[in-house]
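Before drawing any conclusions, I looked closely at one protein's amino acid sequence and its backbone structure tokens, quoted below without any editing.
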Amino acid sequence: MRSQAARSCRIGLTGLGRRYAYGTFRVERVRSGFSLIEVLLALMISMIVIASVTSLFYVFANAWLGYRDSGYERDHAHGVVAFLDGEFSRLSGTSATGDNESVQWMKLPEAGPYDPEYLSWKVTDAPPFLSVSPAFEGMALRVYLRFERERGLSLIWHPEDDLLVDPWRDEPFDPTDHLYEAPLTPMVDSFLYAFYDSEKDEWDELDEPWKDQFLKGQMPDVLVIRFLSEDESARPFHVYLPSASGGDAG
């Protein structure tokens, strides 16, 4: 009898753990979950991460609103217009003294018959934003004012051939080998050339006047520049060319 009772209380070992048998009652060891402290710690870390992300978005939003309210767009537009006004005023003064530095329609070097023409003039003192090579310092530059809707307003330039003197050069000077681009602004929505018709007493605004046979070679009186702006009522800027009198920066 004792041997049967001993066998009924025998402890069996299994591959899944240690199992105890006490008559008809069996108790199995189970794996425990997260404790309360671990759950609270995970919640605290999640709250810290969410608060940090929210704070970062708040900083970015304030920076963007400050950028919009700072008047950067307006100041940028005035700066571009002031540069063009200064260049054309300088050219107007040189034309009055007899120097041949007026604005004219010209195509880029090696341009085709159907390629656009650009307003072009000579620059004797390069502006600071033109990254002129030391080999071209002190030389006159030929610049072209180009507008492309995808890229904005820029200056295409190359050194003038007659001033690029190199006694060791065997081949003639090719301006296409020294053609550079200097961006002025990408924030231009439209760029028009305005012509005044004295007979009709009205203005004609064109975006490609070189295609008009009646205006072939005629210089525009005013450049009408509209900058990108969230203010739909923003006025365009007007830049007067040397052939016209007066000036307006807004």
Q: What stands out?
A: The radius of gyration is 38 Å.
